[in-house]
Specification:
CATH architecture of the largest domain in chain A: 3-Layer(aba) Sandwich
CATH superfamily of the largest domain in chain A: P-loop containing nucleotide triphosphate hydrolases
Order of helices and strands of chain A: EEEHEEEHHHEHEHEEHHEEEHEEEEEHEE
Largest sheet of chain B: none
CATH topology of the largest domain in chain B: MetI-like fold
Radius of gyration of chain B: 24 Å
Number of helices of chain A: 10
Structural class of chain B: mainly alpha
Structural class of chain A: alpha+beta
Number of strands of chain A: 20
Oligomer: heterodimer
Shape of chain A: elongated
Number of helices of chain B: 14
Helix content of chain B: over 70%
Number of strands of chain B: 0
Shape of chain B: flat
Strand order of the largest sheet of chain A: 6-7-8-3-9-10
CATH class of the largest domain in chain B: Mainly Alpha
CATH topology of the largest domain in chain A: Rossmann fold
Helix content of chain A: 25-40%
Largest sheet of chain A: 6 strands, mixed
Number of domains of chain A: 2
CATH architecture of the largest domain in chain B: Orthogonal Bundle
């Protein structure tokens, strides 16, 4: 149990900067998720914390110790790999006991710790089996057990659920979160799946191209993304981005305009300097006019349906407003045929929209 | 329709017969020399060299074997061959596995060049290195010493190559997990890598043992003493043991005795050997 801090961490592979001057503080006992697309550097960061890679610049702290010079085995951390990395020629018990045996822990204590971990994970009946006799989910638990028996200062998870089928993944997510709460151990979890990140994290670190984009609770990241990358990465279906410019109190997107209040308009004017702005609006925050009475401002966006994806509880509509594509999600269930080519009048929920400046950073 | 089926059936039977015949002929070609040797060990030299050739001996001369055991100190020679073959095999297993692991999984400068250098020595013919090697062994004062055969046998470029290729297939995650679990590099090698390599190790040990057991030229050069000779070299002496006349019966009897351990090893490990030949495409040899 310890806090982990990364200061000015940089790692290069040849010309590629995998991790770019990263500063991150991970609180003791918290569950932090590193999330981002493939190649954003999240696995590299994890491996640097573990000691499997050396950083080029910067410092790594586990607890209060600077650990860059320490071997992985001296850092008192445990890792769970995407491929589980179970020793194929040993039984589940031996796999879980391996680290303890390497440290010279007495036999009796090994027996106790392994059985305790096995009980926690519900795998006592599997202890005598070899990895090839286990299912994916069972191997996953043994890999977890191997990490738990070590009672480390921190758990490092590298996309541990990626190899499981969807249903099992969902179940394991819940179990993992509950396990971490019980064990009260600092956890760093790497994934490219933003749903996993949202459901598991106490705090999320969103990364892109080795640069930290935002480090906040899932709620904050969703509600107040710091730039277009974060806004577009978190949330399904992804946020709509429409280019526009500020004209008086409206945002002019060419095909339509969005009216703003005085206050909002002046904030934008101050920060964004009028032009090359982007409106961001989530598909869930677009509503459609349901009756003739509604068709008046503010339902002033005329859209044509291109196609619809009925999902059961909701429908995703792909629309065109003139030449601007838009995706919206509505709770009404309609069939494809009913809507194809239909014309709808839409409005954005004004307190939910985001405005980004020309660099992609949030103004609103 | 029936006629077509009948013709198809007949063709199939014909194909089968011709396949089997070919296999039998091929098998016979390989077995015949050994059969000749084993049967010859019960004959007299005159009978062996007689034309027309007789297959089965007129009289089963078990005395041939007795004479061989008297003429040669067979137990001693057998012990020599065993000691050399087993020690050299074990040694080359260890060095090949360690080098293979280093080349496959450890990152260090010059690893590629070093590996290719070792790899290229496989191309050098055996006979080219005979004289330089002899000079080295002589200057080290190792003539008539077991080490003269064991030491050169410890480093095996084929072994290094094979182990490296095999170990490349071990997932890196496994080694990382072991590092995190608290293993030193040696412990990783000993407890994780070696157990996972056992098919390659088994194949290598067979090739190595068989090569070392049957090696004739090198032990002939460096172990000339009668009590230090290997069995293969000893058998060669049987040919000229009585009054300069070439004595096939003793040679054959001796050769039959010498082949027994190899045969036993083969029978026990035949599955592994066949797998090894098909995988590496080589019949063995360092």
């Amino acid at each position: 149990m310890a806090r982990i801090a990364l200061r000015n961490l940089t790692k290069r592979f040849g010309k590629v900067v995998a991790v770019n001057n990263l500063n991150l503080e991970i609180a003791d006992k918290s569950f932090v998720v590193l999330v981002g697309p493939s190649g954003c550097g999240k696995t590299t960061i994890l491996r640097i914390i573990a000691g499997l890679e050396d950083q080029d610049e910067g410092e790594t702290y586990i607890g209060d110790k600077e650990v860059s010079q320490l071997e992985p085995k001296d850092r008192d951390i445990a890792m769970v790999f995407q491929s589980y990395a179970l020793y194929p020629h040993m039984t589940a018990f031996d796999n879980m006991a391996f680290g303890l045996r390497a440290k010279g822990v007495p036999k009796k204590e090994i027996q106790e710790r392994v059985t305790e971990a096995a009980k926690l994970l519900g795998i006592e009946h599997l202890l005598n089996r070899k990895p090839r006799q286990l299912s994916g989910g069972e191997m996953q638990r043994v890999a977890l057990g191997r990490a738990i028996t070590r009672s480390p200062k921190a758990f490092l998870f590298d996309e541990p659920l990626s190899n499981l089928d969807a249903k099992l993944r969902t179940r394991m997510r819940g179990e993992l979160k509950e396990l971490q709460r019980q064990l009260k151990t600092t956890t760093i979890y790497v994934t490219h799946d933003q749903v996993e990140a949202m459901t598991l994290a106490d705090k999320m670190a969103v990364l892109n191209n080795g640069i930290l984009q935002q480090y906040d609770s899932p709620g904050e990241v969703f509600e107040s993304p710091s730039n277009t990358f974060v806004a577009g990465f978190i949330g399904t279906p992804p946020m709509n981005f429409i280019k526009c410019s500020l004209a008086d109190n409206t945002l002019d997107a060419g095909e339509f305009v969005v009216t703003l209040s005085e206050d909002l308009a002046s904030i934008i004017r101050e920060k964004g300097k009028d032009s090359e702005l982007t409106i961001g609006v989530r598909p869930q925050d677009i509503t459609m006019a349901k009756s003739a009475a509604d068709i008046a401002a503010p339902f002033n966006i005329s859209a044509t349906v291109v196609f619809a994806e009925p999902l059961g509880t909701s429908t995703i509509l792909h629309l065109n407003v003139g030449s601007i594509p838009l995706v919206m999600e509505t709770r009404e269930f309609v069939t494809y045929d009913q809507l194809r080519g239909a014309k709808l009048d839409l409005q954005f929920e004004m307190d939910k929209i985001h405005v980004f400046d020309k660099n992609g950073d949030t103004i609103l | 329709m029936k006629k077509q089926q009948k013709r198809a059936g007949a063709t199939r039977v014909l194909a089968k017969i011709s396949r089997e015949t070919l296999l039998w002929i091929g098998g016979a070609i390989f077995v015949l020399p050994f059969l000749w040797m084993v049967l010859g060990s019960f004959k007299t030299t005159a009978e062996i060299t007689r034309i027309p050739i007789t297959l089965l001996p007129e009289e089963w001369l078990i005395n041939n074997f007795v004479e061989v055991i008297i003429l040669l100190d067979v137990p001693r020679l057998f012990f020599n061959s065993c000691l050399i073959a087993v020690t050299a095999t074990l040694g080359s297993l260890i060095t090949s596995a360690m080098a293979g692991y280093a080349f496959a999984k450890l990152r260090f400068r010059g690893s590629n060049s070093a590996f290719y250098a070792i790899f290229i020595t496989m191309i050098i013919p055996y006979f080219l290195t005979l004289i330089p090697s002899y000079l080295i062994v002589y200057r080290l004062g190792l003539i008539n010493n077991y080490l003269a055969v064991i030491l050169p046998g410890l480093a095996n470029s084929f072994g290094v190559f094979m182990m490296r290729q095999f170990i490349l297939g071990i997932p890196n995650d496994l080694l990382d997990a072991a590092r995190i679990d608290g293993c030193s590099e040696f412990r990783i090698f000993w407890m994780i890598v070696l157990p996972l390599c056992w098919p390659a190790l088994a194949t290598l040990s067979i090739f190595s043992f068989m090569w070392n057991w049957q090696d004739f030229l090198w032990p002939l050069l460096v172990l000339p003493n009668k009590d230090m000779m290997t069995l293969e070299v000893g058998i060669n002496y049987l040919q000229t043991v009585r009054s300069g006349v070439i004595n096939y019966q003793y040679a054959m009897a001796g050769a039959t005795i010498a082949i027994v351990p190899v045969l036993i090893v083969f029978l026990i490990m035949q599955n592994q050997i066949i797998k090894g030949v098909t995988v590496t495409g080589m019949k063995g040899g360092a």
